[in-house]
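Q: What does the assembly look like in three dimensions?
Context provided by user:
Components: four
Sequences:
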Amino acid sequence: MKDCGTCPIQHRAVCSYCDADELVELDQIKYYRSYDAGQPVLWAGDHMEFVASVVEGIASLAQAMEDGRTQMVGLLLPSDFIGRPGRDLAPYNVVAVTNLTLCCFRKKPFEELMARTPHLASRLLEMTLDELDSAREWMLLLGRKTAHEKISSLLAILATRDAALRKQKPADGAAFDLPLTREAMADYLGLTLETVSRQISSLKKRGVIELKGKRRVVVPDFARLLGETGDDVDGGMIS
Amino acid sequence: MKDCGTCPIQHRAVCSYCDADELVELDQIKYYRSYDAGQPVLWAGDHMEFVASVVEGIASLAQAMEDGRTQMVGLLLPSDFIGRPGRDLAPYNVVAVTNLTLCCFRKKPFEELMARTPHLASRLLEMTLDELDSAREWMLLLGRKTAHEKISSLLAILATRDAALRKQKPADGAAFDLPLTREAMADYLGLTLETVSRQISSLKKRGVIELKGKRRVVVPDFARLLGETGDDVDGGMIS
DNA sequence: GCGCTGCATTGATCAGGATCAAACGGACAC
DNA sequence: GTGTCCGTTTGATCCTGATCAATGCAGCGC
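A: Here is the predicted structure of the complete assembly.
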């Protein structure tokens, strides 16, 4: 994998396979955008004039029903990609969960570049397939896991992704910040915020996690946390 | 869209944008396979030596937990695509729900063809994005809808797809066959088969649907069925 | 200090679906 | 015919998580 110079994080997301020339082109059509926590990035139905990758912070994709029920359908951490070449309208609400910086590429030139760059296109396909896999993992969680297992799964996911950002494996005793409010976790998991709060309290009481303040989580024994998720614990990553 | 001659249905799925030359190449690497209802096509973790499109019948993708809980994560109707270029191992169990005929393409040559055929690659990306969208729609269903809304949504989806196979819009009074057992519907919806059965009985009692035998469904008023789904009824398709 | 606001926790109660159990009905073999 | 098998329906009961409600707690402006 190449180091992409002035734009390391987001270029890793979209062009880890592309050549120097394409990097230069990408550099020419990119621009940065920042959002405050809670600020909407896109509403469902908006015209999307850019695709983007997350540089810093967290964004969520969510679907809402008319009566206010909402379900988060995507959680975008640094290096994740927003947008869909070939589509014009945003299919979901995109909201900045924390302060957020995006590296945006104007859609038209990006698509043109993609059409000329097989590696970029196949990288996009690969990323989309990864997203599809994680969506399907998520479906198992929503459809079949108990509240208990849902919370444990979410904590395990966050701990893993947090460690991955530092290029580490999740380790016993590792600490990370909960980037989501109880309500956002509830929307992620298909629960109410009260249930989320209760389950977190229960995990704390049973010593599976420790809380430093309300947001910092310490996982003394990562394998034990995994044991609470209901997942196949030794299940190797399937590529 | 081209008519693909000897192989109309499945070619429409994978190569509606490709040229005659590519059609010929696809023809050379294809072969058919049939499965009986209930028969497994692939187990999670199997090596996949082919990609395929569904010619006739229905297949399901499902994830299973160790204790037997299972969640369907994909329902493949004629013209849907199975397999992922670039991946070696099947990520889910694939099972023939009804008698099933696949048109298979050996994976290696298919991938080589794809690498040389931008249109084929971008068509694949488009199809994958569609799948991602429907997975996310499904997540809303699993996370936030009531049993009642879930059943109605499933019936609406099946009615719509059934009509689409005949190139029609779902019409009032249209009838279609329920291709799934109560248990398969339960796995689709994240419910138990008893709840599925009760909800169907309730819809029947209230006159939203009629049952001819156990499998044939008549929808006298399609808009009324849609009204039971909890979905934004006038919500246009977002592309 | 005060009150206000936004998130989180905790409690009491309720209800939607799960679970356990029995019975039904059609297809099929004999 | 009888019996069995499988998918389905229906009933009775239980329990998980939703709902309604009160309280806690930290940050912040005044």
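Follow-up: Residues 1-10, 12-19 of chain A have pLDDT under 50 and may be disordered.
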